[in-house]
């Protein structure tokens, strides 16, 4: 069912819900899902409505036009999207295939509502797998001595493919600040630890040294500070003294791909809102 | 913070949210929490609002009066409650103390928003524990040959203490149909299995024989059909071949008390709505 | 590291562990993993040793010869296997791809220690995916009016490919009793419910009707009685009133493939022993 | 059933298992549980046997005498304990009752195999609850300006009550280094975060600021470095943007008490071995 998704954040005050639901009712909008959140710490209000598109008398453009006065009145940050206009997601990977294969299969079987215009990798190993899915594979090697040209090419490819979302599916390279800024809150990373524990490289080795009893994965938006962006989704799996670092890597893969696919799904369905480096996820 | 909780179920149609939020906005109601659910299978709509009591110009009685026309217009089943008017919960137990001790401690430490006018038990073992908490203990033995007098006394005690909720905290007796009807959707049971598996007696023995790898507990409203009432909450814990029935009993206790306290909390906060023998839980 | 896996079940009595570990120590066997279980209910003892192959002075044949007297003395059911001799696993699927794609990827990336001589399906949809992995695809349509010829062909293919394990990766057909007997404790199924709840067809519909708060999946050996064979692994995922049957199907897929791959892995590593329709899993 | 628990750690080499199981078999020892672990990183071997006491011809003293030569031969760190000689556990608490009440109830209902000679607290709030259980309550106020006298008294009380284990059940005071050394690997703490995230004070506030999607608790041995001792047990619970710090505190309580009771139980049953600031837990 085609829906419009109206996503709003604004300073909290009385009457927001009434105003918005009145607006929708005026046009006979059939609400299929509604979520609110009053954040008492920040004093902000967050709201998401999903409305059957065929119940409304206008298209997205007119919706925006009609809603603009309300948005102004309440100083809203807002967006409205059409579920039938799929987001364009560029996937980036390195040599590890588990996250990429998982996302490609979900997309291929119709479970992940997006388009994937291309996959970018700094290695060539995963080309055949990607191309079997009918998706172009862009091999952009990264010269450790001079990474700039590679990232310039990455930036160009993202823009060329009109992507609105970039997923680092175990890409294993740190994006330069400029890329982080250019695509703020559009780049999603999967980190293989339960952040904020074990930031940076080799988190499973860090976990093994510390002797933790659970290992985890964290899906978050990429910001300039490494592994410190707003967290979208996390999960853990139980380990024991019997699990070597290799076992952790294997067990961790399943958590990584589950957490990444869940986090990405929330993003694709416009369920994630960011405020003060934290997320509201209307799951 | 004192709130009014408005809980509504009605046949789904356009304009319900607008009507209700308009009503609240008209009186400057400050909504602290709002939840909606459109059940496409049954065509019913469910809604719960929590509104700051001090933001509204009237008390509960006037609220009911003012809202009644809207309720009629949309054929609503509805109720509004005051968070400061605590529900009165009669606890019933047998010999096992874990669920009862857990609920009493939560209540005693201020975590469980209710009053406990008395505890009823068919045995006398737990009297001292209950009385330490300052709660009257009613010992109502059940004669296996003639249970009727005992249940008549139970019914009398529930009414005498003006209870609106009864919790079977491992009471181990099957309530007669008449009691189930008299207090429909007011009696909460904890069953020590992941229902609908292992209905009836000795579920851990049944689980052991079947060789399951997880055991669970189910919190549900009591209906005339044994262990078949609407489910409020469930959870499981992992077991293995090493766990004997005794281990399951021990491990199960922790799940039972967690599931019961979570389910009861949802009920006390008016978060549970029943339709077609299933629950909507706005947790 | 190449290991021999010695797996033993026998009536419990004093001295079994000493006898077996003495045997291994006599030949300087380097034990890398050892697990025991005394089942007090049945009076049986279960044991599994993993021993570095290069620490022993003989091959599998001589191992069997040398150990046989001990096995006789203690009336053991036993087997010893070589980790470098991979099991041969025939996968069977229908139209749903999630379990098959997951297993193929794990195999392809070297995570699943087995050979996959062929995939058998009653439909032709998944041929291209399978063949991309370099695995033969056998399309064996099942005539609903006369299923016998199809299952005769399935049986022939399993034997032709010298498979020792068959995995029903959402095959959606009930195997005839003859096949169940012929390959007893060699056929692994994934059922999309937390057994014994919701045996048979459309378990997610059954779960939705019953209003459960968790849905699950069960990996088990196939026996003649439908969905009643020994359980190897189970897991669950939380759902709520908001999840339609379609949502359950989607959420369930992730549990199904995780549970199936974990259960299969245990089987491939000779960690599963069956006794009285229950499993001992030395995970 | 009364058992002897033989717990061993030593440099790994061939023949340890054979030697130990031979020793037990020689005396007709009936092994009810056996666990091994070869740590490839450190090259150490860990082993735990539980043996029916009535199957052995000697008491604990003679056991130690008979086993000593083997222990010397393999340079073992080892201990053997009698399940019927309960550990003596001093509980320490502050004002928060949830962990203390949970442990007391488990002890009172016979679930926790230990003796509790006294409870020490820096406040007087929990006296009545403790004394209802028939346990002496020692109020030892801590002067923030001069903590030494209080900790000297704590140390004296622990020794006076011949405790072999001390549990900080949300004691909220940092033990001085001297106490940590005096009772090394005997003091168990519950920290209300998933360590190593959020060391130190107010972990739920830290978690809220960071916007994590799971909060946790960690049960660990206390060492001189704050919240950095060997981890015995951990667990987490899911939270969302809707959960305030107060909600986290409430939800966290349940994880804290579960994790603490599980960790303590492992310790009481001699299932925990410490090596290189990490634990082997034969659960």
From TrEMBL, chains A, B, C, D:
**GO molecular function of the protein, one example?**
formyltetrahydrofolate deformylase activity
> Which catalytic residues are annotated?
227
**What keywords were assigned to this record?**
Hydrolase, One-carbon metabolism, Purine biosynthesis
Pathway assigned in UniProt: Purine metabolism; IMP biosynthesis via de novo pathway; formate from 10-formyl-5,6,7,8-tetrahydrofolate: step 1/1
- Pfam families recorded for this chain? Formyl_trans_N (PF00551)
Q: Which InterPro entries would you find in this protein's record?
A: ACT-like_dom_sf, ACT_dom, Formyl-FH4-Hydrolase_C, Formyl_transf_N, Formyl_transf_N_sf, PurU, PurU_ACT
Start and end residues of each ACT domain: 5-85
Query: Under which EC number(s) is this enzyme classified?
Result: 3.5.1.10
Q: Which reaction does it catalyse?
A: (6R)-10-formyltetrahydrofolate + H2O = (6S)-5,6,7,8-tetrahydrofolate + formate + H(+)
Q: Which domain of life is it from?
A: Bacteria
Give the family this protein belongs to, as stated in its UniProt record: Belongs to the PurU family.
What is the protein's known function?
A: Catalyzes the hydrolysis of 10-formyltetrahydrofolate (formyl-FH4) to formate and tetrahydrofolate (FH4).
Designated name of the protein: Formyltetrahydrofolate deformylase
Source organism of the structure: Azorhizophilus paspali
Name the gene for this chain.
purU
């Amino acid at each position: 069912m085609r829906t419009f998704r109206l996503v709003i954040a604004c300073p909290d005050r009385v009457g927001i819900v009434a105003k918005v639901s009145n607006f929708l009712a005026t046009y006979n909008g059939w609400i299929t899902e509604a979520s609110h959140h009053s954040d008492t710490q920040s004093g902000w209000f967050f709201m998401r409505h999903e409305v059957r598109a065929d119940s409304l008398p206008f298209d997205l453009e007119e919706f925006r036009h009609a809603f603009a006065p309300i948005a102004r009145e309440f100083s809203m940050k807002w967006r409205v999207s059409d579920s039938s206009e799929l987001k364009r997601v560029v996937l980036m990977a390195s040599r590890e295939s588990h996250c990429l294969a998982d996302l490609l299969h979900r997309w291929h079987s119709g479970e992940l509502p997006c388009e994937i215009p291309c996959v970018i990798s700094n290695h060539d190993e995963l080309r055949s797998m990607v191309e079997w899915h009918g998706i172009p594979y862009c091999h952009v090697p990264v010269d450790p001595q001079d990474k700039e040209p590679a990232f310039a090419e990455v930036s160009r490819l993202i823009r060329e493919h009109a992507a609105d979302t970039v997923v680092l599916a175990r890409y294993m390279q740190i994006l330069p600040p400029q890329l982080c800024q250019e695509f703020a809150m559009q780049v999603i990373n999967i980190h293989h630890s339960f952040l904020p524990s074990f930031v940076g490289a080799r988190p499973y080795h860090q976990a093994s040294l510390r002797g933790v009893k659970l290992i985890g994965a964290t899906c978050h938006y990429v910001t300039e500070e490494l592994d410190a962006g707003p967290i979208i989704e996390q999960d853990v799996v139980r380990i024991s003294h019997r699990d070597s670092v290799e076992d952790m890597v294997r067990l961790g893969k399943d958590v990584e791909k589950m957490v990444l696919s869940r986090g990405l799904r929330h993003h694709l369905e416009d369920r994630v809102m960011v405020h003060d480096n934290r997320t509201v996820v209307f799951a």
